[in-house]
């Protein structure tokens, strides 16, 4: 939990960080907010470095910027990329039209704030998946920390990262450009990665409460894949590459261009936002075969927000719609040492989504708000195998309601409860499954769930907290298992499953002014605890077994001493006490582990600062992530990603 003391003015399309925080904390449910300015004192190689302190968010590194991202068990069995969470940048989706997505278009060094909406609490953004949504907010010239910022960092495993940002306000016009270039040789063999990420925006003030803003994103990724290992190799020889990876020169190279616009107008207490976007994606991905995908995603999303008095009581209404489509050429070739050989598949994938949603918050009393909402959707997936002439399609529709309460018990203390229905629609990775060397369309049902949650957040004296318990009853959960470490996993619909957990984040100020009266220094203890219990319920094959993928308990403890002059030191402990089930048969767990870290830094002067970030100080060998298998007891599973060993990073920031 981070206290924001932002004074920047913001603008009609992008409010100030303080206003963003104030708005999200009026949600009748579990949410999270990060002021990314406080993360500039650490090495940010991927989004795990952004999200690791957020309660309820499980982010596990695999290699480069690839990781597992899960909220409340979303994508628990997905061995790659993202499932069940909608990723947005500046409130505009970055996922493809079929719902799939990855992390390479989000630059950790180019963010101003991060909003986390868990589960059905993302309805106000139009999302209705089990995991909810994460909105990454980039700075504008109004919200940037300084007109010019230069950052340089690097360290272990050949890591080098440079980032530059320039912003200006020129009358009614404002502009900002941010570029980050990252290189890492990688801790493991065959893990070298190069990333180039550009984000820019241009705003024009149409009037006192009207503005249009254009966003341009250009992203280039060249990432070698180190592959997966057996458990014995992950712990005994973790730096080597997986079997066959080097011979096939496995990699994932991406070229993405994104153009988006938001136009906002506010009149008489009614705000209208109209978002539109176009994303072009070009992927070259040699694995068991060479996979290529090229295509475009487009979308239009109007949203109206109104605040008025109803019977003498305050009432807030959000009404929105989204029309999203995409068309992609998906081809496969024989992998000849990482090059494309003879073609094996020539397919076309088309997706079209039509969605409408509303959310209304009515204050029964000044302290108690009742929230009700509804989302209706219709999604289409069309697949044509031009190699064989076969054509298939699937349609999904649903209505997902929400009801909740938000009670402000006292100033800075809130209690909330809600009940929501979510629906996850299969993406083309689910629908086009690999059997041997062939790919076939495999119809799947959508995943549906009812989630109840109750929680509290606030501050009282030296204590700040965020605590939530949730319980989801899921039907048709889309689960996956690895057939072979070189082949994308198969997906199936489970029967009834249960997801429940506790999400806790707390910070206690132990002491202030230790050096002298009014010295301004402080000592704070922070604790994160995620307890997750995901299991089948009376499954014909798996009984009541736990669903593999995520550890039951994840804890992160940090003790920070900070002075008013900018000096700080923070030892950290990341502890996974029980490991995670690897297989659906529940025969194997990953070992427990505890990782020690240390960060410290200082401001050399008002505009120049530096940091040191030391990780895994005891050089502990551990499993960072894995892809689930059916039965690990039947044969040794080569499915594990080893964690990075002892490493040190340093960085400097100059802003003027």
TrEMBL record:
Segments forming domain TonB-dependent receptor-like beta-barrel: 167-617
Sequence ranges assigned to domain TonB-dependent receptor plug in this UniProt record: 25-133
InterPro entries in UniProt: Beta-barrel_TonB, Beta-barrel_TonB_sf, Plug_dom, Plug_dom_sf, TonB-dep_rcpt-like, TonB_rcpt_CS
Motif TonB C-terminal box positions after renumbering to this chain: 639-656
Coiled-coil stretches: none
Intracellular or extracellular location(s): Cell outer membrane
Keyword entries, A-Z: Cell outer membrane, Membrane, Receptor, Signal, TonB box, Transmembrane, Transmembrane beta strand, Transport
One Pfam family named in its UniProt record: TonB_dep_Rec_b-barrel
PROSITE patterns in UniProt: TONB_DEPENDENT_REC_2 (PS01156), TONB_DEPENDENT_REC_3 (PS52016)
Entry membrane topology: Multi-pass membrane protein
Family to which the UniProt record says this protein belongs: Belongs to the TonB-dependent receptor family.
Name of the protein in question: TonB-dependent receptor
Species of provenance: Comamonas faecalis
Higher taxonomy: Bacteria, Pseudomonadati, Pseudomonadota, Betaproteobacteria, Burkholderiales
């Amino acid at each position: 939990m981070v206290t924001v003391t932002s004074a920047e003015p913001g603008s009609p399309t992008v409010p100030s960080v303080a206003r963003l925080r104030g708005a999200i904390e009026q949600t009748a449910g579990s949410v999270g907010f990060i002021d990314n300015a406080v993360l500039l004192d650490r090495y940010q190689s991927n989004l795990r470095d952004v999200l690791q302190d957020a309660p309820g968010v499980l982010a596990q590194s695999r290699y480069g910027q690839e990781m597992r991202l899960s909220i409340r068990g979303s994508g628990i069995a997905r061995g790659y990329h993202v499932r069940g969470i909608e990723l947005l940048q500046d409130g505009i989706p970055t996922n493809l039209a079929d719902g799939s997505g990855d992390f390479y278009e989000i630059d950790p060094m180019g963010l101003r704030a991060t909003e986390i909406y868990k589960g059905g609490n993302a309805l106000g953004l139009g999302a209705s998946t089990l995991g909810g949504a994460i909105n990454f907010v980039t700075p504008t010239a109004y919200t940037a920390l300084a007109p010019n910022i230069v950052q340089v960092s690097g360290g272990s495993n050949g890591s080098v990262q440079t980032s530059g940002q320039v912003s200006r306000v020129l009358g009614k016009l404002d502009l900002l450009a941010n570029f980050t270039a990252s290189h890492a040789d990688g801790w493991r063999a065959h893990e070298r990665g190069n990333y180039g990420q550009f984000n820019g925006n241009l705003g024009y003030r149409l009037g006192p409460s009207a503005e249009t803003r254009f966003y341009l994103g250009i992203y280039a990724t060249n990432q070698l894949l180190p592959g997966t290992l057996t458990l014995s190799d992950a712990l005994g020889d973790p730096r080597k590459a997986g079997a066959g990876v080097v011979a096939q020169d496995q990699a994932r190279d991406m070229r993405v261009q994104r153009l988006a616009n938001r136009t906002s107008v506010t009149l008489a207490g009614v705000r209208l936002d109209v978002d539109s976007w176009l994303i072009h994606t070009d992927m070259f991905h040699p694995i068991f075969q060479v996979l290529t995908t090229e295509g475009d995603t487009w979308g239009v999303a109007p949203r109206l927000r109104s605040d008025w008095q109803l019977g003498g009581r305050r009432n807030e209404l959000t009404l929105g719609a989204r029309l999203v489509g995409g068309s992609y050429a998906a081809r496969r070739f024989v992998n000849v040492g990482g090059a494309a050989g003879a073609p094996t598949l020539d397919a076309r994938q088309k997706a079209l989504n039509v969605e409408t949603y509303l959310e209304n918050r009515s204050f029964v009393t000044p302290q108690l708000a009742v929230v009700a909402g509804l989302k209706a959707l219709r999604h289409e997936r069309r697949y044509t195998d031009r190699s064989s002439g076969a054509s298939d399609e699937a349609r999904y529709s649903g209505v997902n309601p929400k009801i909740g309460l938000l009670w402000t018990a006292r100033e800075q203390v809130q209690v909330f409860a809600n009940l929501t229905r979510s629906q996850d629609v299969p993406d083309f990775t689910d629908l086009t499954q690999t059997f041997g060397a062939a790919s076939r369309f495999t119809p799947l049902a959508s995943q549906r769930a009812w989630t109840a949650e109750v929680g509290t957040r606030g501050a009282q004296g030296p204590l700040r907290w965020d605590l939530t318990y949730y319980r989801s009853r899921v039907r048709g959960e889309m689960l996956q298992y690895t057939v072979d470490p070189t082949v994308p996993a198969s997906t199936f619909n489970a029967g009834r499953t249960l997801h429940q957990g506790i999400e806790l984040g707390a910070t206690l100020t132990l002491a202030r002014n230790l050096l002298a009266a009014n010295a301004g220094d402080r000592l704070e203890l922070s604790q994160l605890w995620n307890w997750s219990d995901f299991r089948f319920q009376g499954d014909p094959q798996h009984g009541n077994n736990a669903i593999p993928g995520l550890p039951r308990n994840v804890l992160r403890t940090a003790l920070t001493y900070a002075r008013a002059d900018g000096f700080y030191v923070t030892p950290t402990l990341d502890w996974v006490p029980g490991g995670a089930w690897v297989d659906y048969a529940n025969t194997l767990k990953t070992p427990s582990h505890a990782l020690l870290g240390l960060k410290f830094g200082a401001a050399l002067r008002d505009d120049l600062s530096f940091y040191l970030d030391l990780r895994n100080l005891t050089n502990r060998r551990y499993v960072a992530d894995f892809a689930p298998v059916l039965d690990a007891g039947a044969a040794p599973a080569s499915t594990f990603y080893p964690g990075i060993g002892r490493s040190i990073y340093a960085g400097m920031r100059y802003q003027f």
